[in-house]
Amino acid sequence: MQSFVEELALCVAANGAKGPALLWSEDPTTVPALLGLSRPARPEPGTGSSVPGGPGTEELAAELGRRLQLRVRSFYRFLSAGSPVTEGAPRGAESTVTVLEGACRCVLSRIGEDSAPRPPHPLGMRLRSGGTLFVPRGHTYRLSEFYAPTTLLELHLECPD
To answer: Fewer CB within 10 Å: C terminus or N terminus of the chain?
Structure first.
């Protein structure tokens, strides 16, 4: 898990002022370790899909926050097959979205741009298990095309108070 924190910190530091980035951990134990963290039960469809992270993700968030000198908050987002489009509005200065299980289509937009479907967006991609998307300040994301239950770990990076 330590290598994942190091990779995330490097990704955020290197791309924060430049734009979005996609990260795949170099350590093959990262995804199994993330899947092994205790997490809340998947809520029933339609009852709200984003919940605060548990103790394991809080430790991960705290370590990332120490490295970046930011406050980091963790959330799980649970999406069912056939879920409607989900918007990712910025809750902090920046965020990361890691796909733990499943897959989805993601379209990134600058805040104020129209992210409605149209010819392929230059920042559109398919996110799969193990991939982490860095969403910099001034961007939002739109998730769609859920063909299987999908679990995301979101880390919201906030300036310290």
So the answer is: C
* Model-wide pTM > 0.70: yes
At 10, give phi and psi (nearest 5°). -65, -40
Query: In the 8-state DSSP scheme, what is residue 60?
Result: H
Q: What pLDDT score does 12 carry? A: 92
Mean pLDDT in order along the chain per 10 residues (161 residues): 92 88 92 89 67 89 94 91 76 85 89 55 78 90 89 88 59
Residues linked to residue 72 through DSSP beta bridges, in sequence order: 157
> DSSP characters for 76-94?
EEEE-TTPPPEEE--SSSE
First-to-final CA distance of the chain? 27
- Residue 121: what pLDDT? 44
CA distance 108 to 15: 15
Decide: helix, strand or coil at residue 30.
helix
Q: What pLDDT is attached to residue 127?
A: 92
Burial per residue of 38-74, b for 16 or more beta-carbon CB atoms within 10 angstroms, e otherwise: ebeeeeeeeeebeeebeebbeebbebbbebbebbbbb
